[in-house]
Amino acid sequence: MNILVFNCGSSSLTYKIFEAGSSGSPGIALSGKAHRVGVKGAVSSSIENTHLGVTEKTEIAINNHGDAAALALKLIINRAIPVDLVGHRFVHGGEYFKSSALLNAATLKKLKLCLPLAPIHNPISLEVIQKTTEFMPSVGQYVVFDSAFHSTIPPEAYTYCLPRKVIKKFGFRKYGFHGLSYSYITTETARILQRPVKGMKIVACHLGTGGSSVAAIANGKSLDNSMGYSPLTGLVMSTRSGDLDPLLAVYIMYMYGYRSHDLLDILNKKSGLLGVSGFSSDITDILSRARSGVHEIQSNLAVNMYVHRLKKYIGAYTAVLGGMDALVFTDDIGAKNAQIRQKICENMQWCGVEIDENANFRETDGKKEALINTKNSKVKILVIPTKEELVICLEGMRLVK
Fold it and tell me: Is residue 396 one of the residues assigned to a domain?
């Protein structure tokens, strides 16, 4: 059985076809990724794929995730690669979905009700689902939800300080996201360090070109995540504001006459690194400008804010866990950007973090796992490329069975 998996990031679309047999780990028949989907910056968007050992990359304008999915689906159909099932990552299922689900009319109706919960991610995932239906109408589809891993967050961490009647009426609570990534990272950290998951304390940083978060993980279970009811809160992200005084939102609406959809657009699509720098939502672009002297003030401020917020969360989660055994970096920025990792780990000896500069700057391709801590570091520092698509594939196999 061939399972095609789509994984929408806020500015990327990863796709893989897994050859899922009855036993053993699924093999990969084709893999690809659309980069910088809808991103404003100096570097062009592109799509690459690897099939039969050959990697091809094309720079092409990709305005949205529907266009990216169409490019991938056309490639698969033109090469006559069979697809028996298609799986999708859906960030936020709210109260409508507690587990993965096969796609049907009832599921689709509920997915549409979830769109406002994650206004950047949920609509683009639905867009890819609809594009898949258009190109492969007879192939079954399913959805896997990203918040399941964080269902173990305790009440003191997931409860908001709002009136009980408000929480009861609307179901407000912290959900947490990037759960598929954290599930994989937790298992891999234990394997690499040759330690049981039980008894291990992990602070994991999922740093993407779009969304980013940090998780506190103990005994293989999530105790907290920097994201909340939606993926908007927490770290400084590409276009999302992250943590913000809620009264600012009220002032913007009351004093300046903005409507709710205007505010959502500002907080989700025009803030974060793009808002602070004024020219790019990509931390790599911004680092480059900071070194070149062009837009130096805005660039340095954006980088410093990005690092400051990360350090704050790492320190807070070290306190929540009562210590830290491993600090893990993953996803595009976490696995590829050595400069950001270096800045985050500077002056962190107080909590046992000592990074090996040479080892760190050797790891920039984001394709392999590595330990980048010094021998004297009390905390193991790991770079682990995430494999969310494998988790989605395995969930599809479970659903079919």
Answer: no
Measured CA to CA, the distance from residue 295 to residue 365 in angstroms comes to 27
- Name residues whose C-beta falls within 8 Å of residue 138's C-beta, 6 or more positions apart in sequence: none
67 is catalytic: no
Per-residue pLDDT reduced to its tens digit, 341-377: 999 999 999 999 999 999 999 998 888 999 999 999 9
Q: DSSP label at 44?
A: P
Buried b or exposed e, range 357-385, using 16+ CB within 10 angstroms: eebbeebeebeebbebbeeebebbbbbbb
- Report the distance separating Cα 62 and Cα 48, nearest Å: 12
Split into its structural domains, the chain has a count of 2
Pair (87, 219) in one structural domain: no
CATH number of the domain within which 330 lies: 3.30.420.40
Work out the number of other CB atoms within 10 angstroms of the CB of residue 64: 16
Catalytic residue among 67, 146, 224, 325: 146
